[in-house]
Write a structure and sequence with these properties.
By secondary structure, the protein is mainly β. Helix content is 12%, strand content 56%. It has helices spanning 3-15, 44-68; strands at 73-85, 93-105, 112-125, 131-147, 150-166, 175-191, 198-210, 213-214, 222-223, 226-238, 241-242, 247-261, 264-268, 271-275, 283-294, 300-309, 314-323. The strands form two sheets. It has a twelve-stranded antiparallel β-barrel. It is elongated, with a radius of gyration of 22 Å. The model is unreliable at 1-25 (pLDDT under 50).
Length: 324
């Protein structure tokens, strides 16, 4: 193989360009990149895709549940979203996510609710070579209490998750593995002085424990068990409006996300190496949107939002629910 051809191949890998024309049995590592013990290049953006999807899914679950905790009786809600991620020095990826939650609020002085959740998502890198999917099932317990004009609500939840990575064997290779999810959310909301505007402050915490798994590429190396943790602090200001058809609430918000991603541990026949996960979490996000509620029309309610984060990535989310 000529040195010119090898240089072209490695440049394509480094820049995240389409590389199907250069596929080979193994990819030698580029100086300055993350390398396996046997000297193969590891694309950390591929392995980090599941971290991104988990962050979006668990934060989405918290939002869907929180928006429905004030309802007494049976409620159901779905949410669809599209987001982007561009970790520093790595290629951009796009994520699609779906949520569904079913719950029951017992009302009364306790304000207790029980609920079950389902989420599934997919992420793809910009070069079209790599994809990741997650699927999660959860259950939880929530509460909603009113103190004068201030509303306090919260929930804890947990469940199982299953993840897959799809990538050519000549690159990272594919894998599927299980994990667990746990989380907690707390929201304080109410009207501001004068009553024209309202506020909501929400704190979300989630944790994803990932079992160890084997890749079909990279010399069939193993990635060790690891845990990711996310904390999100959101402040939202709204302007409630009442019409004959529905109650509307235009809003603007800002969210700061903090992440704790464990290092990756990778081992193959030549030994073990550790490397840092790409930063998929730490960001600030601004949001504009509209909530609506139609108490006279089968309890139909929803929320539409557009967002943009400090990485220049845009997001869209649409939630629709019913309170019976």
């Amino acid at each position: 193989m000529s040195s010119k051809f090898l240089a072209t191949t490695l440049t394509a890998l480094t820049l995240g360009a389409p590389i199907s024309a250069f596929a080979q049995a193994s990819t030698p590592c580029v100086t300055g990149s993350t390398c396996s013990p046997s000297g193969l290049q590891i694309d950390t953006a591929v392995l980090g895709q599941v971290d991104t999807l988990t962050n979006i899914m668990l934060r989405g679950e918290s939002r869907v549940v929180q928006d429905n905790l004030p309802h007494d009786g049976l409620w159901f809600s779905t949410n669809n979203s599209r987001n982007q991620a561009s970790p520093s020095g790595l290629q951009r990826s796009t994520q699609w996510m779906k949520h569904a939650a079913l719950g029951y609020g017992f009302g009364g002085a306790s304000g207790i609710s029980v609920f079950v959740t389902y989420g599934q998502g997919e992420g793809r890198t910009a070069d079209g070579q790599h994809a990741a999917k997650i699927r999660g099932y959860g259950f939880g317990l929530g509460f909603d209490r009113q103190f004068n004009q201030t509303q306090l609500s919260g929930a804890v939840f947990g469940g199982t998750m299953h993840s897959t990575i799809s990538s050519p064997n000549s690159l990272s290779g594919s894998a599927d593995y299980d994990g667990t999810q746990t989380g907690a959310t707390l929201r304080l909301s109410g009207p501001m002085r004068g009553g024209r505007f309202d506020y909501a402050v929400q704190v979300d915490y989630s944790q994803h424990e990932i079992e160890d798994y084997q890749l079909s590429g990279l010399g069939r190396g193993h990635v060790g068990k690891r845990t990711t943790k996310t904390t999100a602090l959101a402040l939202e200001l709204g302007m409630p409006l009442s019409t004959k058809a529905a109650d509307l609430r235009p809003f603007a918000g800002i969210t700061r996300v903090f992440g704790d991603q464990a290092d990756f541990s990778f081992n193959d026949a030549s030994g073990t190496t550790r490397f840092a996960a790409p930063d998929m979490f730490n960001e600030t996000e601004v949001t504009l949107g509209l909530e609506f509620d139609t108490p006279g029309f089968a309890g139909l309610n929803g929320r539409l939002s557009l967002s943009r984060n400090t990485g220049g990535n845009n997001g869209f989310s649409a939630r629709l629910g019913m309170a019976f």
